[in-house]
Structure formats: structure tokens, C-alpha cells
Amino acid sequence: MPVWGGGLTSHSTNYYGNQIREEQERGERRWRRKKEEERRKKKKRKEGEEEEEEEEEEEEEEEEEEEEEEEEEEEEEEAEEGEEK
Prior knowledge:
Number of strands: 0
Order of helices and strands: H
Radius of gyration: 33 Å
Low-confidence stretches: none
Largest sheet: none
């Protein structure tokens, strides 16, 4: 069959076959990534439940420390203002 006849050539079938294979591989990669992310999320949830309690306690402690620091700064500012007067 002549190339100019508009039929499929070995080059064109190879080209389209490669494109199809690449699409399939991309789809498989997407699927794998998606499954891996789901596994990570599940794992984090399991670990997260235990860690959430610890994190909440740490956050509360940090907030308390920040409040104490702010109070100390306010006291220092008031003391400085009292000295200026």
C-alpha cells in the first residue's frame, strides 16, 4: 500500500500505539498516586487521633505562654510609663 494512499502506515500505527500506551501509563500513575494519597490519609488519621490530643495540649500550653508573655510586656510598659511620670 503506498504511503500517499491515506492508509495506515507502520509509522502512524506505531505513533498512535505509543500515544495510547502513554495515556494508559499516565492513567495508571494517577490511579497509583491517588491510592497512595488515600493510604497516607488513612495512616495519618490513625496516627493523628493519638497525636491530636498531644497537639491540642501543646497548643494550649503555647497559648498560655504567649498570654503570660503579653501580660509581662504590658506590666513592663506600665512600669516604664510610671517611671516617666
